Amino acid sequence: MAVDCFVLITGYFCIYNQKPMYNKLARLWVHRLLFSVVISIIFIILGLRKLTIWYSINALFPVITNRHNFITVFFILYFFIPFINKLLLSLSKKEFLIYLFIYITVISFLPTFLNWTKKVPDDTYSYLAWMVLIYCIGAYIRLYGLPLCEKKYFYALAGCAMYCFLIFMTLVVEPRISWLPKYYTALMVNSFFALITAVFLFYFFLNLKLTNKPINTIAESTFTVLLIESDPLVRSVLYTKIFKCAQFGTSPYLGLHIIITVITIYTFCILVDKLVKVLFLNWIWKKIPPLN
After folding, report:
1. How many structural domains compose the chain?
2. What is the tally of helices (H) and strands (E) in the chain?
3. Is residue 153 located within the same domain as residue 252?
């Protein structure tokens, strides 16, 4: 759902851009490259990885080598945004709805339920096609809103209810169904349930119109948190050797462990983000002006 929300935000704010966003692409590339190189050097210094030709290539070209599939596909998506926007802006509201209905049905709804019965293979969709769908939903919300209910707290309650459903399916139902893959409902990339949850929660927070400075300070570091926490090198030790999450799988302290883990990772990554921006990125951003 975090990935879905990232792309929903992109679709919401980028729908009116019809020119290539080379400066945004450059910023995204530099941001990913910097953390890729720093993390790789740290792992070599700590003796956790050996310096090899492929290791160096993977560190210097993280987008091309698909070091993190979300970043690579997100980067590709940015190339298509001007063309996607021209298509979407040419559609009427009715045509846009029909387009989304067909897209969601084929890419998300049918695979979610048919995969339960193993009638559709897992490769019936692509990650890029999924991101384009999420982008289009974010764009539709910017253009026409989401008029299911005028009360904004409806979306918070609906999103939380769907999230509770995901947890219930993951922890209670799926372990008791032998033919259903573990964590299928929540972790399936194109899960219809996760999609609805992300859209509802996104729309709720969109309408809160928060202007709280501490919240904004935390929010602007979210992408860096993703770059660090989701890096394959970091994940190889973070959850197995540092937080030892597997040991708490059946522990009564699982909930507390999750909260402490999330807060610790997020706090550490925010501090790293602020430090890196002061030392490097703020100077680099001056060379690459933001979008107007």
Report:
1. 2
2. 15, 0
3. no
258 and 277 in a common domain: yes
**End of a domain among 180, 209, 238?**
209
Task: Please check whether residues 174 and 240 belong to one and the same domain.
Answer: no
Q: How far apart are CA 29 and CA 22, in angstroms?
A: 10
What burial class does residue 227 get, using C-beta atoms within 10 Å of its C-beta: 0-12 exposed, 13-18 middle, 19+ buried? Answer: buried
Q: Write the DSSP assignment of 204-261 as a string of letters.
A: HHHHH----HHHHHHHTTHHHHHHHHT-HHHHHHIIIIIS-GGGGTT-TTHHHHHHHH
Examine the domain organization and report whether 6 and 147 are in the same domain: yes
Nearest to 282 by CA among 22, 21, 34: 34
Do 26 and 63 form a contact (C-beta atoms < 8 A)?
Answer: no
97 and 242, same domain (yes or no)? no
Q: At 38, list the tokens.
A: 């720093």
The residue among 209, 239, 262 that closes a domain is 209
**292 residues of the chain, pLDDT tens digit each:** 778 888 999 999 999 988 888 888 888 888 888 999 999 999 999 988 898 999 899 899 998 888 888 888 888 999 899 999 999 999 999 999 999 999 999 888 887 777 654 544 455 567 889 999 999 999 999 999 887 777 767 888 888 888 888 778 777 776 676 666 555 556 677 788 888 888 988 888 887 776 667 777 788 888 889 889 988 899 889 988 898 888 887 788 878 988 999 999 999 999 999 888 888 887 877 777 665 4
Assess whether 232 and 119 both reside in one domain.
no
Residues 205 and 216 in one domain: no
| Structural domain of 287 | 212-292
CA distance linking residue 91 with residue 237, whole number of Å:
48
**What radius of gyration, in Å, describes the C-alpha atoms of the chain?**
20
Amino acid sitting at position 244: K
DSSP 84-134: HHHHHHTS-HHHHHHHHHHHHIIIIIHHHHHGGGT-S-TTSS-HHHHHHHH
